[in-house]
């Protein structure tokens, strides 16, 4: 639980540093830092040491996901972003599958070097992270403006389409603001859409963390051995990764986000309804497993859609940077909540945990409807405003509040 508090606090500063320090330096640097912390978690001697290590893991890992999510928006337009977000996030899904296999294999090292098996999991995965980070220093490109693999005309084309994407349907082409001002950070902290979107985020991420943290335990409590429980997580994550990419591709092609997020969240709800009903009945572990399978197959396509939708509707580079970090950082407090949903005292049925997850999904669905309704209302209001009421410079400063900007639905 403590991991998520430092994880949340350091996401906004990290995203602001990313833009100013360069992605090719910042992202690999924080990977090295958290790889070292992860490795050291394998040699802690008591619970206090483990707790401190988890706090520092939150500090060092905080910048990665919001940083990569923001980095994608530096290269791809609004109608291209979800497919790329899903590719990155589905890698986490596949990693979830292989982490189960790795945990199964590494646990057999119990006693090697005088260390328990769980220590070797932290040590080996931490060392691997550091090695990958060293390669990343050499392979990450910073911005389209400086990309050496593009010609000068290609760089100009990429930059132009990114900066004018928000206003292309308004009849007045306005470039997004690229310079830093603290007012953009303040606007991000006071933007209504981030806080309404936060409920959507929680409706997806509470089930995500709940299933990720406790899926092996839930399967084991259904009567399977610990090793079999790890292996039974694999087909769930692989299927979810494929669905995440497929749904993202369709969403990008259609230019809409809310219908796909809403549908996927309904699938999550159906999955937890099955889990609740089967757990209450008892004696049907296969049905509970099927419910979890269905829920995860809704979670993983919904998550990149949720992140992409909010990023699509934040204009101005630094406002988007801060806004995405706030959305993801505060959203990940769901991990602190959901890590306490599945209590040992509730095993093997975990009815309370399933019910709480279902409740968050229901609230999240309401948030999706609220966002869609408000975006539609504001777009219609902007359509009725006269073109040229403000100068290009004024519209650029206003960002997504400018009359030339149109929200993605």
Shape descriptor reads globular
Rg, alpha carbons: 22 Å
Given helix and strand content, the structural type is: mainly alpha
The total count of strands amounts to 0
Strand percent estimate: under 5%
N-to-C terminal Cα separation, in Å? Answer: 34 Å
Question: Segments where pLDDT lies below 50 for 5+ residues?
Answer: none
Question: What about the largest sheet?
Answer: none
Mean pLDDT: 87
N to C succession of SSEs: HHHHHHHHHHHHHHHHHH
Helix content: over 70%
Q: In DSSP terms, counting alpha (H) and pi (I) runs of 4 or more, how many helices?
A: 18
What can you tell me about this protein's structure?
It is built from 18 helices and no strands. The chain starts with a helix and ends in an 11-residue tail after the last helix. The model has no long low-confidence stretch (mean pLDDT 87). 46% of the residues are buried. α2 packs antiparallel against α15 and α10 runs antiparallel to α17. The chain is mainly α.
Quick summary:
The chain is mainly α.
Write the layout of secondary structure elements.
Layout lengths: L1 H8 L1 H11 L1 H19 L5 H15 L2 H10 L7 H26 L10 H23 L12 H12 L18 H8 L2 H30 L4 H7 L1 H21 L3 H24 L3 H28 L4 H15 L1 H6 L12 H33 L8 H7 L11
Helix pairs in contact: 1-4, 2-3, 2-5, 2-15, 3-4, 3-5, 3-7, 5-6, 5-15, 6-12, 6-14, 9-15, 10-11, 10-14, 10-15, 10-17, 12-14, 13-14, 13-17
Give the key terms.
409 residues, mainly alpha
